Amino acid sequence: MKIAEMRKFLILFLPLLLLLGCSSSKEVANLSAEDRFEIGKEKFDKKKYLDAIEDFKYILIQYPGSTVADDAQFYLAECYFNRGEYLLASSEYENLIHNYPTSEFVPLSRYKLGLCYYNLSPKSQLDQTYTYKAIDALQGFIEYHPTNEFVQDAERKIHELINKLAKKDYETGLFYMRREFYKAAMIYFDSIIERYPDSDYLDKAYAGKIECLFKRENYNEAIKVADEFERKFPNSDLLDMVRKIKREAQLNVGREMRTSR
User: Fold this and answer.
1) Whose CA, among 7, 69, 164, 212, lies 20 to 30 Å from 221?
2) Which CATH architecture has domain 161-256?
3) 32-114 belongs to which CATH class?
4) Which are the contacts of 135, defined by CB distance < 8 A and separation ≥ 6?
5) Do domains 32-114 and 161-256 have the same CATH topology?
6) Cα distance between residue 181 and residue 44, in whole Å
7) Is the pLDDT of residue 21 over 50?
8) How far apart are CA 189 and CA 193, in angstroms?
9) Given a cut of 80, is residue 258 above it in pLDDT?
10) What are the pLDDT digits (tens) for 59-104?
């Protein structure tokens, strides 16, 4: 097509195309909140999350008091969650919980808020801010909705997250033990004993503390904690090691008593 013909084509048909575009935009703008939600939900179901986000945001801005406002808020959060944008998703779940406290989506939003932080929780050696947030959110979910179908999963995830925190302290304790900083190591073992008594690292923390006490020649305290270990963890894989340390501590106490006479 020659340039002159192309210009003539644009002059004739461009106004028509603009008119059709404006007409289409007006039709969308004139949709009810319910109709706009159905369009957004259809896009969501087809995993067209970016497109759906625009529809749900439009409803929240233009129809904040509509019957589908909480639906739009929830699915907006779901769009971000399904895209792996967990910080954005967490913010939108919180908006639903605070702005629509009577919504049917509140229980699931509390659970999904916990999942956002759970998915953001890093490896044990890194900063654990999101791990603490995940525990708080999931515990809040359980407290508010104790009969919900996702409670058991929330409990499992809390246990997993607590183990991650305990593992961080345990590995730090071992780090100081290898460098013979036994007093520093005991701080981390005591942290597990006091803060994470339900973790899988509890017997390891006790065993680490007993070894540190022995290395610091605090034999009586080592024996006392070893006795506690035997009562608490009769089936622990570390029991033989603890008993060996206890026997050596008892021998040292006996020697000290003989030399002091």
Assistant:
1) 164
2) Alpha Horseshoe (1.25)
3) mainly alpha
4) 158, 161, 162
5) yes
6) 56
7) no
8) 6
9) no
10) 999 999 999 999 999 999 999 999 999 999 999 999 999 999 999 9
